[in-house]
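Appendix C: a fully annotated inverse folding record. The material below is reproduced so that readers can follow the format used throughout the book. The structure is listed first as tokens, followed by the designed sequence.
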């Protein structure tokens, strides 16, 4: 009977001062996420100016459980974008995930192969494997049926080809 009660009830927990637990760091993180456009990709490091990494990680996990965020990879989250025409959430943009990973690790990247053709509009077929040249190490990330590969190249091999720095 106790399990059934927990599934049906919503319990509000308040702090000793009478405010909700959604104050301070959690409130700042939630406001930053809610003010962003749907489909925005976040990394845990994007909130380093608000709190320490353990607090940020805990807050982001709470927002995932609340349905405000969707976990794409470890430390990479998306504010889901809902399509009312299809009546479901839109798939995560792999190019945005690659850019977020590059920003997080301070890599310079440029699309390569089929990903470059798709992003330039020269191919209509969306690739399942997104390749990028990078000045970082060889790395591969996978989720669902999508794969992102970063292939190490020296800076001179792709200077002038990378995304403009904003």
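Designed amino acids, in order:
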């Amino acid at each position: 009977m106790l399990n059934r009660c927990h599934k049906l009830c919503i319990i509000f927990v308040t702090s000793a001062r009478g405010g909700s637990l959604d104050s301070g760091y959690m409130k700042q993180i939630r406001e930053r996420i809610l003010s962003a456009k749907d489909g925005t990709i976040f990394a845990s490091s994007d909130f380093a100016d608000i709190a320490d990494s353990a607090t940020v990680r805990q807050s982001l996990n709470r927002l995932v459980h609340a349905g405000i965020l969707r976990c794409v990879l470890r430390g990479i989250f998306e504010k889901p974008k809902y399509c009312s025409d299809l009546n479901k959430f839109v798939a995560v943009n792999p190019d945005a995930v690659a850019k977020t990973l590059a920003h997080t690790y301070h890599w310079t990247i440029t699309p390569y192969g089929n990903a470059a053709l798709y992003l330039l509009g020269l191919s209509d077929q969306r690739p399942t494997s997104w390749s990028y040249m990078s000045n970082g190490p060889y790395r591969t990330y996978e989720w669902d049926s999508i794969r992102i590969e970063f292939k190490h190249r020296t800076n001179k091999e792709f200077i002038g080809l990378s995304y403009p720095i904003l």
